[in-house]
Amino acid sequence: EGKLFKPYRKRSYSALQKLVNKGLKVNNTDRVVVYSLVYPSSPDEKLLLEYLVDNGIKASLPSMRANYLDRCFLELARAAGQETLTIAPESFSPFIQRIIGKYFELDPITELILEAAKLGFNIKIYVIYGVKGEKKEDIEKTIKKLKEIAGIVRGFRKQVSITVNPLIPKPKTVFQWIGMISLDRARGILRLFRRELRGLVDTRPLDVNWGWIQASIALGDTSIGKLLVEWGVQGGDLGSWRRIIRRHGYDTSYVFTGRSPGGQLPWDNIIVDQLTERVLVSEYYAWQRLLGRSP
After folding, report:
1. Given 117, 186, 231, 293, which is the most exposed site by the fewest CB atoms within 10 A?
2. Tens digits of per-residue pLDDT, 95-112?
């Protein structure tokens, strides 16, 4: 979403307040669900939360950007009825952060989790693994940090859950050219997560095979449409997916190799501004340099 919906836009406090009041009246409710790609990201969003609390309006908040949170915001979120603090750091390895483009300092994360646990929050964390170029030490850094967080949260008798997903390449991102790691390697990494975190946290992994199916659809061309219809008719389960692609001789190798840089892409008919397209290309070459490859 961050790639497709540029330039960055935000609504003013007054506009948000009007939307909330209208929605509450139309739906005859006292609860607001906040949707945002980057939350919180401005003082206006804090003002809106203050308005909700002052007027006794409950709020369900999205995954929050840990580097934008402070104790004051956490207190407001708790007062609005939020029971779980959800964050999506993706990885605690600086190297993987550089590839994904999601940067933050590690020490403030620990302090934030400590404050959240003191305030009575349960903690939910989303982690991504399987970025090409990821080494075992990158995974171990993430696991070490997750163990530290689990210890803090459990010390306050609160729950911590971790959702572990393989990286699924999507169109209009640099991963359309990079592709997905092999299923065998993905399964091995997932086993490592589950073994190291067993008994500490509630780990909720996405099945690697479903990640493969999602990537097949995401990076597929128009020929996949007929397969999807047939798959839906036959139940939409993993077994029927395997049978259908085998019967049609459908090759999903593009999921793992990525689409060819500089070649025609199935979604080139979807026009995004040229600046975004140029940034994607430069990000791809930056990834190659990070791995010591020649562009």
Report:
1. 293
2. 888 888 776 677 788 888
